Amino acid sequence: MADPSTWRPAPGTIPTEPGVYKFRDEHRRVIYVGKANSLRARLANYFQDVTTLHPRTRQMVLTAASVEWTVVASEVEALQLEYTWIKRFDPRFNVKYRDDKTYPLLAVSTGETIPRAFFYRGPRRRGVRYFGPYSHAWAVRETLDLLTRVFPVRTCSKGVYNRHQSLGRPCLLGYIDKCSAPCVGRVSPEEHRDIVDGFVSFMNGHTDQVVRQLTREMEEAAAELEFERAARLRDDLEAINKVMEQQSVVLGDGTDADLVAVHSDELEAAVQIFHVRGGRIRGQRGWVVERTEEPVEALMQDFLIQFYSDAVERALLDARDEADRVERRGVDRYSSQPPRPGAVVPREILVQHLPDEADEVATLLGELRGAAVDLRVPQRGDKRALLETVGRNAQDALRQHKLKRVGDLTARSAALQDIQDVLGLEEAPLRIECTDISHIQGTDVVASLVVFEDGLPRKSDYRRYRVKEAAGGGHSDDVASIAEITRRRFLRHNQDRLSVPDEEAEAQTFADEQVEEMSTDVRRFAYPPNLFIVDGGLPQVNAAQKVFDELGIVDVTLIGLAKRLEEIWVPGEADPLILPRNSQGLFLLQQIRDEAHRFAITYHRQQRSKRMRVSELDGVPGLGATRRTELVRHFGSVKKLREATVEEIAEVRGFGPKLAAAVFTHLHPTAGDGPR
């Protein structure tokens, strides 16, 4: 860790104007971004006696190796630039209010020719409209099950859709009228799109028109003595009402508002937000974040800027997707339109505590909305009562979080301390990486690299590798594969470390004959681990150590963890280290090794399944792995592909008549060139 006095800017060189500053570590990675009305006064706080600083701030200052700043014209510009840099650099010491990837969502793939509605968890993608988040997975499925009675949209996967399209008959949902069956032409793509638009419009809150229409049709059917149709419409109306039951009116004046509350202790803070539209609660979300020495007002300010800036950015992407969809269909408008970028910021934002710079924050939110925003603390009435309810939810969320994590936090701290003691490290290994190899008799060799920070998995930094056969025709063994993966990972680290990263630079890839990196994250990966674990004994550890010596890696501790007796092998040592069986450190190492094994096995099964599924297509001239996969995905199976004509194969993306004929001939060796 660097001494702050060695890199502190000279007195008088820091300007007194408002601006935004960045702290960087020794690897030039941005670790903290902040803003200040006076840069000189704010930065001076970081260079006082480190023993008086908050523990998190002290750790940041000791990790940093330099500080930079940018002067801006106003405090509003400082707020905007701070958000932009936090989004861009993802600094580890900033509090980030991000969507929990485990939230269940209801998604509609509006970018497809035949859109479908489905349950979804994960990051948001272009061409998909999302509704939620929901508190439970069953709530998404129940909502979808109820609404498909009224809006029979497609809910099946692409493979199922293509299979029933080939069979010429719908699935069970089509027979019970919970799908309009576009796969067999029961409705045209345009008619199905209208059904989807109605579904999206209803989910956007336009429910009154649907209820009135169903009620009118039910009364007309009863008057015409069509009692079966009237009963079905009655059931549809009950399904709609059941979906709307949970959206009770909480503000009688039809207010559009967001209510935000924060509850905190010395270490963490819980944030809750209720979205009220038309006087009804349309959604609820919550976060628990680490707290620094900043007051609650500063937490509120950071949350408002990050949350609404992200929301407007997502709305812009949705609007762009909708514009592309309109252009593809060649029409001017739809029955449902995506939310305008400014519509995600309501006219009223009611908070428990006003931000530090309330006027500047209100101005920035007004720019995002395109109109004035009323940012205030309600003093009385229904709004005050509802905000107190939001506050109680925040308090309960923090309490539940503490109950769930207190034992884990203590165990993780003890585990890291055990590992530090047994390996004789100067500090606890806060970042640990582990690699494992998976194969069956030397075929489909793959490897995984998992990352744990502070004793918890950091899945955004996971990597997976495909190890190819050696040039001589043989297969790589575990020792050679471990060496290759280690070289790949730390060659990447060395290359990035030797070149100072540009602020606009993205992650680089390096060609390699033996290893292909399959990354789940495109950001730079130059941040080194404190501890690197290989799955295996002394041979694997010594192979990895040779790579370390070759690349000059001296700042990373290397060990191996053997499965037989859970021994810890250190390079160059004849005897392993043995941790007590009840050691928290041993338990954490096992957990990390097992996670690497799970991740490798999962990827190996994917590769093996892909190879076996398209093995019948091996040997087709000009047909590579990507096109083989696309071909099988299009038809659903090799069996269905064998029944296709040359013309049908040529319709697959990336296929022309010549390649389609080659595929057909390969699958029908006695058929010549196939039917024309």
Features:
single chain; 676 residues; alpha+beta; GIY-YIG endonuclease; Nucleotidyltransferase, domain 5; eight-stranded mixed beta sheet; five-stranded mixed beta sheet; 20 helices; 19 strands
Describe this structure in words.
The protein has 676 residues and is α+β, with helices and mostly antiparallel strands. Among the domains are: 4-89, GIY-YIG endonuclease; 257-399, 2-Layer Sandwich (Nucleotidyltransferase, domain 5); 429-590, Nucleotidyltransferase, domain 5; 614-667, Orthogonal Bundle (DNA polymerase, domain 1), CATH 1.10.150. The protein has helices at 4-7, 39-44, 55-63, 75-89, 137-147, 158-167, 172-175, 189-203, 208-223, 227-244, 296-329, 358-369, 381-423, 478-498, 538-551, 584-613, 625-635, 638-642, 646-650, 657-667, and strands at 19-25, 30-36, 64-71, 105-108, 117-120, 129-131, 257-264, 268-277, 280-290, 348-351, 374-376, 431-440, 443-453, 456-457, 463-467, 515-519, 531-535, 557-561, 568-569. Strands 12, 13, 14, 15, 16, 17, 18 and 19 form an eight-stranded mixed beta sheet that branches. Strands 9-8-7-10-11 form a five-stranded mixed beta sheet. Helix 9 (208-223) runs antiparallel to helix 10 (227-244). The longest helix is centred in the middle third of the chain and has 43 residues, at 381-423. The radius of gyration is 29 Å and the shape is globular.
